Amino acid sequence: MKYKKLTNAQRSGLNQIPNRRFTLWWSPTINRANVYVGFQVQLDLTGIFMHEIETVQKETIHPRKSYKMNSSCADILLFSAYKWNVSRPSLLADSKDSMDNTTTQKYWIDVQLRWGDYDSHDIERYARAKFLDYTTDNMSIYPSPTGLLIAIDLAYNLHSAYGNWFPGCKPLIQQAMAKIMKANPALYVLRERIRKALQLYSSEPTEPYLSSQNYGELFSNQIIWFVDDTNVYQVHLLDFPNIVIKGSELQLPFQACLKVEKFVVLKPDKTTITEPHHIWPSLTDDEWIKVEKNNVNVASLTQSEIRDIILGMEISAPSAQRQQIAEIEKQTKEQSQLTATTTRTVNKHGDEIITATTSNYETQTFSSKTEWRVRAISATNLHLRTNHIYVSSDDIKETGYTYILPKNVLKKFVTISDLRAQIAGYLYGISPPDNPQVKEIQNGFFLI
């Protein structure tokens, strides 16, 4: 070896840790703590970018922060408009924080990524140890004594945080981290890059999860087993060549029925009978209305929604409050985006005047109030609304009239309507001889 000329790759490989694939291959079980020698850190790569928040400062991170394990620095620095009361250091999962009259106007956040191994992936212990190490050593320079260290384990998809908390910070971090861990593309890309570098691959391609889009596979002529592994203590997944193992995004009915809150409420009293071959009690329509979940009007559901519910999808009743919140958020977003409108006009002397307007109230005179294109497109789709017609039965009284309206008259009334203009009509009908309270409508004369 001494006399042989080495390539650059061989020469650089000799003074690093042994080949990573060899390290994992040699390990008695993949990913153990005592296999890695030396640079455990070349997996700790981090980058945080935040914009458009005035009271947040992006810290200039030391380029070697990613693989310097004996010191750290802040990734984000928050400035408060007033002094925050901060608690003593505690974990993200701790519920009782004790305030000790410490106040601050600067609050830092340090994000630490790690690739855990089988022997040491207690992320809470890691976060606490790192926070205490870095806040007490002489190497780390944090901008204030109060802050938070967030630790993320990419290998085991775990997260925790340890540090001082100001009021409202802990629930915010809990919600934000839950969302980030579930669906953050940057974490996913980083995890996949590390897996690629370590050459950790499954022997067979990952099967797509069962969802409401590909549920048709359930009805193929193959033998399908449903394995409910939600409450298990130990899992051994063995690889068989003729068995394909898939995950499921659907709460299939036999599992979903166990998740119905207050299952016993479906039995209002002892007299309610359940047939021997039924799981649901035999209730009348009125009783079902009282025990129905989420107050969802069944007639207003589309076919795809009904299919999703049968396949175990959770639904919630339409909320006017949620719709209003969404509209307000949309308006604020539109107002924050300034669009410059340039208008060319001519005065009575023939001089050309060019005006540029940016604020919303200045552009009102130049915008059309009718939006006829949108109305025209919407009006052509009105016939689709007649596919699912349901009548709200909240204010119906027994003493009032009952109107029987033919479906073809109702369809005609809907399809000739307009979204903005009010439409009225005269309806003509008769009452049957045996019941004067019922009015059977036979034709109509509509005014547009």
Could you say which overall geometry the principal axes of the C-alpha atoms support? extended
CATH H level of the largest domain: which superfamily? Pre-mRNA-processing-splicing factor 8 (Prp8), endonuclease domain
| Radius of gyration, CA atoms, in whole angstroms | 33 Å
Domains, number: 4
N- and C-termini, Cα separation: 96 Å
Q: Order of strands side by side in the largest beta sheet?
A: 1-2-4-5-6-3
Contiguous uncertain segments of 5+ residues: 13-29, 35-52
Which CATH architecture of the largest domain? Alpha-Beta Complex
Name of the CATH class of the largest domain: Alpha Beta
| Number of distinct beta strands | 11
Helical content band: 10-25%
> Whole-number average pLDDT?
74
